[in-house]
Amino acid sequence: MHRLHRSFFTQPTLNVAAALLGQILVFKDQRGLITETEAYMGFADPASHAARGLTQRTAMMFGEAGFAYVYLIYGMYHCLNFVTEGIGFPAAVLIRGVKILDESGLHLNGPGKICRHFGITTKDNGTDITQSSELYVDANNITVEFTTTPRMGIKKGQNLPWRYVAKNL
DNA sequence: ACCCCGATCGTA
DNA sequence: ACGATCGGGGTT
Question: Which strand C nucleotides have any atom less than 7 A from protein CB atoms?
Fold first, then answer.
């Protein structure tokens, strides 16, 4: 088994969002199947933090693919994203669903629950997931069927079907 | 300095 | 349906 490398993340964001389904999220000693993702990309996506341009917070999304973008939402929950595409084009994939790979089989549905369970916080923002020994994604050679829906919890951009949900995990 | 609001979640 | 809770970013 090997981790996903930078070329995987340096692709069109919708492709990455779909291809991440069934891959294995690793953080410290915990592993989980990715079951649900969402894409946020470009200057014209009104739901993206980066839609209104480059700021200190969104700088990560404008940077090189293969880095973690972690932010605090509603003052109490963290959200884990992986940066995609080329430098200068702001894009990332939000990890929304993970099935823990242990005897519990716990299914974490929601980005806040995932980060709370794994212990991922803003201190992990900016991690290079192609280099880090703590946070990365392992390749998993399985076929995953999925459906797409509008993204959750947003007020603008509901017309875009950029949420990816695995059917058979 | 001030104000608004959000890629959520648990409780009512 | 609603409140918790706080940092980012725009406005004064």
Answer: 4-10
